[in-house]
Write a structure and sequence with these properties.
about 180 residues; mainly beta; 5-stranded parallel beta sheet; 1 helix; 15 strands
Length: about 180
């Protein structure tokens, strides 16, 4: 049985479909906005430190998201099955949890900032193709199925990993033959 959505105060949705949070809010509870389609963009204040499990999962119209630079933790499936096109993960988020952005079919660019150390199981599984993933030197662990690259696909459908020579991220990418390039 799933977690019931929790009420969040200090929010507004403007006429152009932008969900805004008041400054000072530090956490978004689990399932708080799950399955809502009344916004296309989420603007999070820098005060947000925690995003709960499934907080925005299945928000099919969510296209634009900028994570705050001081985000410390994110729950599993936080943004799964959304319409996000590109995402930048701040270095303050040391661990990207399981299925965080899974099934984001239009996700084509992922930039992970220096400071992130691990990527969980299926964090970016079943995302858009082609997919470009920029990984930092700080990465120490990547789940084997983080990008769900277990089955070969045509070159145009592959994943391109950008990581520095000698980094764990580059070694990981080179050890997965279904990745188009490790550059």
């Amino acid at each position: 049985m799933g977690t019931a959505p929790q009420k969040v105060t200090g929010i507004s949705i403007d006429e152009s479909g932008v969900l805004r949070f008041e400054n000072g809010i530090e956490a978004i509870p689990p399932c708080a906005f799950r399955c809502r389609d009344d916004f296309q963009e989420v603007v999070l204040p820098e005060t947000i430190r925690t995003i709960g499990d499934q907080a925005f999962s299945n928000c099919h119209n969510l296209k634009f998201l900028e994570l705050p630079g001081h985000l410390a933790s994110m729950g599993g499936y936080a943004f799964s099955n959304c319409d996000i096109r590109a995402i930048t993960i701040p270095g303050s988020l040391v661990h990207i949890p399981q299925n965080a952005f899974s099934a984001c079919k239009n996700l084509q660019t992922i930039t992970v900032r220096e400071g992130v150390e691990s990527i969980g199981s299926q964090a970016f599984a079943d995302c858009g193709r082609p997919l470009r993933v920029n990984l930092p030197n700080s990465i120490k662990q990547i789940a084997d199925d983080a990008l769900d690259i277990t089955t070969p696909s045509p070159a145009a459908q592959r994943i391109e990993i950008c990581a520095q020579e000698g980094s764990l991220a580059r070694k990981w990418a080179l050890s997965h033959p279904t990745i188009a390039e490790a550059i």
